[in-house]
Amino acid sequence: MDQKTTLMDVVKLIYKRRKQIIIATSIVTILTIIIMLMMPDYFKATTVFYAASPDLSKPDPLGNTSVQKKYYGDKKDIDRLLTIANSNNIKDYLINKFDLYDHYDIDSTKKYSKFKIRKKLDNLFEVKKNDKDAIELSIEDKDKNLAAVMSNDAREKIKTDIHNIVKNIQRSEIEKYSLKIKDKNQKLKILNDSIELIKTKYSIYDPATQNETLTEQLTSTKGKLRFLKSKLDVVIKDRYVKRDSISLLKANIAGNESKLLELDSLIKIFNKGSSMLSPLVNQKSQFIEQMSLDNEKLNQLNAIYNSDFKVLHVVEKAEVPLRKYRPKRSLYVIGAFLLSLFFSILIILIMEESKKIKWD
Questions:
Q1: pLDDT of residue 239
Q2: Residue 98: count of CB within 10 angstroms of its CB
Q3: How far apart are CA 248 and CA 147, in angstroms?
Q4: In this structure, what is the dihedral angle of CA atoms 156, 161, 163, 167, given to the nearest 10 degrees?
Q5: Quick one: which H or E segment has residue 136?
Q6: CA separation for the pair 195, 222 (Å, rounded)
Q7: Rounded to an integer, what is the distance from CA 135 to the centroid of its chain?
Q8: What pLDDT does residue 357 have?
Q9: Topology, domain 174-305
Q10: Where are the domains of the chain?
Q11: Cα–Cα distance measured from residue 114 to residue 125, given in angstroms and rounded to the nearest whole number
């Protein structure tokens, strides 16, 4: 019974003070409506894009290696893109290009004006990753056309900044390979000079052919010398052979022996030179092979550097919004009405209860 009586008392009290409640609620609601009508409309334009894989800005692997390129960036690439998108560099670009000091009515000559303009833009600028791993860049503005233009320009500026960062990395790689090739050219020149010096000193012109020729001459001379000596042994035993023939045969043997000694000397010199020349020639071949790969790599780097590789994939350009984004006036008015009604009743109840308290 007590609970029913209390509830009835509350209802009676509300009914009794209904005029005050209606007046208070109406005043708050009307003031809220007036304030809401005075607030400007803001339009939100959004552009959507994906981070591109760094593979698109790298040359293909050398050789026969087949590597599948990725076209979309992973989590790290998305994080890097978000970092660049949220940088002051992007905001300052928008501030300068669209004269936002004047647009937001901020005096650029005053202290902390740069802080204020960035903070203002921060409140209207949003870059986030959605549930599909795409990047959503949104800008709010009272001018719906400007909101769309700024959003698209911000995306293009992000694209340019990433492009420049990658270009700088590529330029560094190109310089590195150019220096590497230059250094190898110098070493190759020294190597060629050393090879020519050894060839001149040891009379080497064609190692493979020369070795074969000397070996054949040595074998032929030895064979001929054996034959002549055998013939001399037979001729000496023959008493009918003239001494002139024997002398001629001996002279021929002496000539071949001299030739054999000369060939032995030439072969020793050739072998000594060849032993020094062979490692240098092998080293030269390796140098040329490596330089060929380096030159091919450099050509690929230059080709990529001069190409317009993708750093992001645009899914949706920002369009001029058809409806305002905020404020949600009806929600504010309904909220103000309910809050004013609640507090009006609460104040009346408190005032009524305070009358029952006996103050000593």
A1: 64
A2: 18
A3: 113
A4: 160
A5: strand 135-141
A6: 32
A7: 18
A8: 66
A9: Helix Hairpins (1.10.287)
A10: 1-39+327-353, 174-305
A11: 16
